[in-house]
Amino acid sequence: LLECLCGEYPYALAGQQMSEFEVMTSIVEGPPPLRALSLCKASKGMEELLSSMLQKDPEKRFSADQLLSLPILQKEPDDSVKESWRSIIRQSQVKKGRLGM
Which residues of 69-92 are buried (b: 16+ CB within 10 A; e: fewer)? Predict the structure, then answer.
């Protein structure tokens, strides 16, 4: 989602090419790419949503219900978009449960 919003891979520096191994390593070992949110001029609502989703610490990461209660998902005028978000978030919670996370 962040890559779609910004138009480029959020872990790479401008113009930097990364191998698949470097990409995976940066995701697993690096900090969340929160600086990309300000660089791509995300709205405050989108910043709140993505920064909540990008938390690596499960104790700090929002639950599906908390994500769904964020204003950006509440004020979406198109109910089909809101329902798509809800479906994606719920599916990720189910997958996490299957993986024992």
Answer: ebebbeeeeeeeebeebeeebeee
3-state secondary structure of 94: helix
Mean of pLDDT over the chain: 77
Task: Name the one residue in this structure whose structure tokens are 């198109």.
Answer: 78
Give the integer Cα–Cα distance in Å for 27 and 47: 19
Residue of 26, 70, 63 whose CA lies nearest to 9: 26
Q: What is this structure's pTM?
A: 0.60
Give CA separation, 35 vs 11, 12, 40, 93, in Å: 9, 11, 9, 26
